[in-house]
Amino acid sequence: MGPDRVAGGERGRVRGLPLVLVSLLVVGVAAAGVAIDRDGGGPKAGPGDAFYSLPKNLPVAAAGTIIRSAGVPAPAGAAGTKVLYHSRALDGRDIAVSGVIYTPTGAAP
After folding, report:
1. Is 104 exposed, middle or buried (0-12, 13-18, 19+ CB in 10 A)?
2. I need a labelling partner for 27 at 20 to 30 A (CA). Which of 12, 18, 35, 102 fits?
3. CA dist., res. 49 & res. 61, Å (int)
4. Is the pLDDT of residue 3 over 60?
5. How are beta strands 66-72 and 78-88 bridged, if at all?
6. For the segment 42-82, what is each residue's pLDDT rounded down to a tens digit?
7. Which range has the top average pLDDT, 11-15, 33-37, 72-76?
8. 5: Cβ–Cβ under 8 A, 6 or more apart, which residues?
């Protein structure tokens, strides 16, 4: 098999690569997520991090409910969004968590 061929006989195409990249992205986002405890036990937002500051009267909501989102810089061919959303602590308390999502801007292969 020549250097420009892949298993299965197709030339110049690696079918599993997009799946691998998306999987790595999901793992990276999960690892980068930050919990913000409304009771003061979690990390504190620093000055200039207003995106991560919670209002004092934030009502409890279903896990996954978006509190806010904003665009972030992304590599070429992708769009980036940071999100702050409701989740649950191990003891069941409502907490806010954050993450960054990168999505491709082009057509699917």
Report:
1. middle
2. 12
3. 23
4. no
5. antiparallel
6. 455 555 688 988 888 889 999 999 999 999 999 999 999 99
7. 72-76
8. 11
> Which H or E run contains 94?
strand 94-104
Integer Cα distance of 18 and 55 in angstroms: 39
Q: What is the pTM of this model?
A: 0.57
Q: What token pair was written down for 27?
A: 């793992």
Asked if 80 and 73 count as a contact pair (C-beta separation under 8 A), the reply is yes
Length of the chain: 109
Tokens describing residue 10: 């197709």
Name the one residue in this structure whose structure tokens are 């110049």: 12
Residue type, 59: P
Q: How far apart are CA 102 and CA 83, in angstroms?
A: 11
Q: How far apart are CA 54 and CA 97, in angstroms?
A: 11
Strands (E), 1-109: 34-36, 66-72, 78-88, 94-104
Whether the Cβ atoms of residue 75 and residue 54 lie closer than 8 Å to each other = no
